[in-house]
Specification:
63% helix, single chain, mainly alpha
């Protein structure tokens, strides 16, 4: 259950390693599922297209949750994940979060993350 909260929850903090793992799984997992099922879903018509878009919508949710928690790890508000919508800034924000070290001590968002919790 704690792994589901780590992927889908917006609360808490996330260190760089956890963020990298979520980004890898969050990007590749739904895209692979979508690519493997797309030919059969396309034959189903509109229902198939809707069903095929579901993994992509889940991917967006997971990536926003991870980005919000990563911003909290560097003592910024989770609302800073809205930077992803700014054209050029949105492209470099995940890279900055991947390499910018988080707070080693407690901050206003809780204790430092040591594992998925």
């Amino acid at each position: 259950m704690k792994y589901l909260r780590a992927f889908f929850g917006f609360y808490g903090r996330m260190n760089r390693f956890q963020y990298a793992m979520v980004m890898i799984i969050g990007y590749t997992g739904p895209i692979v599922i979508f690519a493997l099922t797309w030919p059969s879903l396309r034959e189903m018509g509109e229902l198939g297209i809707f069903t095929g878009m579901t993994p992509l919508i889940i991917m967006i949710w997971v990536l926003f949750a991870a980005t919000a928690k990563r911003f909290r790890d560097i003592n910024k508000s989770g609302f800073a994940c809205l930077y992803l919508f700014i054209p050029v800034v949105g492209l470099i924000t995940p890279l900055v979060l991947l390499f910018y070290p988080g707070d080693l001590s407690d901050n206003r968002f809780g204790p430092p993350p040591l594992e998925f919790n």
